[in-house]
From TrEMBL:
<dbReference type="GO" id="GO:0047714">
    <property type="term" value="F:galactolipase activity"/>
</dbReference>
<keyword id="KW-0443">Lipid metabolism</keyword>
<keyword id="KW-0809">Transit peptide</keyword>
<keyword id="KW-0150">Chloroplast</keyword>
<comment type="similarity">
    <text>Belongs to the AB hydrolase superfamily. Lipase family.</text>
</comment>
<dbReference type="GO" id="GO:0016042">
    <property type="term" value="P:lipid catabolic process"/>
</dbReference>
<feature type="domain" description="Fungal lipase-type">
    <location>
        <begin position="191"/>
        <end position="337"/>
    </location>
</feature>
<keyword id="KW-0934">Plastid</keyword>
<keyword id="KW-0378">Hydrolase</keyword>
<dbReference type="InterPro" id="IPR029058">
    <property type="entry name" value="AB_hydrolase_fold"/>
</dbReference>
<keyword id="KW-0442">Lipid degradation</keyword>
<dbReference type="GO" id="GO:0009507">
    <property type="term" value="C:chloroplast"/>
</dbReference>
<dbReference type="Pfam" id="PF01764">
    <property type="entry name" value="Lipase_3"/>
</dbReference>
<protein>
    <recommendedName>
        <fullName>Fungal lipase-type domain-containing protein</fullName>
    </recommendedName>
</protein>
<dbReference type="GO" id="GO:0008970">
    <property type="term" value="F:phospholipase A1 activity"/>
</dbReference>
<dbReference type="InterPro" id="IPR002921">
    <property type="entry name" value="Fungal_lipase-type"/>
</dbReference>
Amino acid sequence: MSSSFIGANPIRNMSSSGCKCDLFNPTITRTQCITLVQPTKSNTTLEKMKNMPHLRSPPSLLPLKVGKKWKDYQGMSNWNGLLDPLDENLRAEILRYGHFVEAAYKSFEFDPSSPNYATCKYPKSTLFERCGLHNTGYKVTKHLRATSGIKLPSWLDKAPSWVATKSSYVGYVAVCDNKEEIKRLGRRDIVVAFRGTSTCLEWLENLRATLTRVEENGAMAESGFLSLYTSSGSDNVNTSIMSLQKTVREEIGRILKTYEGENLSLTITGHSLGAALATLAAYDMRSYFLRPPPVTVISFGGPRVGNRSFRRRLERQGTKVLRIVNSDDVITKVPGFVFDDVDKNGADVGKNESVHVACFRSWVQKRVEEVQWLLYSEVGEELRLCSRDSPYLRGVSIATCHDLNTYLHLVDGFVSSTCPFRSTAKRLAFETTISSTFVIAFDHKALRNNVGELSGELSSFDEFEFFTEFLTQVFDSGLE
């Protein structure tokens, strides 16, 4: 992994209590409590969810005009007044970017028996159409690959090739090239979209939770995410593969030069691991280019990425981050610890908090600060959602709470903190991705306790038995 991160250059209006709201007004004009005639059973299964009709509107059916207010929707005012209640234009924009992330998943070759495993299934010219995204007004300009920096043990030579796949297709760059869409958006938008964890080594990188220095200013980021962003490598025929960082820099630089003088924006979006990569890429773009366009991150179910200095550096850059978080999603609560709500002098005492409690919290923070490599900080603004607010998402698994489709469903339904779910929200067609199964094994015990759930997703793999043994040995021996 490169030791230098920055170069010299430059997502029913009804809540669980039955709150019904008027969505055609940006403010809540009426609240009416009603009772569900048939409450959703607590033992709802994924099989029942899979039979739900796909009613979520595609982005081409959301022609809401952004126009002159585009900077507000890109977070230039930190989405002030737009999140609670959730502005309809902003909802549409979050869903639109969520569909771009979906395309990154759908275009990934998941079949380990395929000679094209972990590559993009579709050429740039037809990627959106093949993924079911029509009339986006964007064209894909570059496929992106991420490479793991983990040193593999020698005994892995006997493993199936898919286990040791180090470099894989992780997303793409696209640029708006349709005049009508440019007019609707109020600028020419550049999109970078990243999928979540999909390969063994990416999953192992997720577990490298210690912080690594990004710059000399004290900014640090999670080691595994940074490794995937900055590592280069070679393929099976020893062809050199550029790091994700260098590829993104070069492609964004080319696009900025092509459209120099135009009103531009850079929106980087991702889910899970992709959300972490999106945050790192945004940090990098603002640092690398001398005069970058406004940079915004739309993050779905992302883990923590960096420490307090990393967050402060993002803020000073002017990078805007909107984190869409499901309260029931464990991935948004890892890795490390967060103590941003307590100042260093222990003086932040809440109205209902005793001095003794405050002092204890301050003492805990000081002890945690002694292990800086585990002290993280949340970045940007947060749109907090909850699976339990949807009548369609009761009693679902940990993996379901993390799935991108769940996030898009919750965004589609959310109204406000006082009216969490709208009656006109679309049901979701639940298509759990393999990526979601990986969230259940963040430690050795979780892996052993959830092998059955993993095998349900990986039963088609002849190598499943080897896969579980491989992970067990890695945890027993530790990562390099």
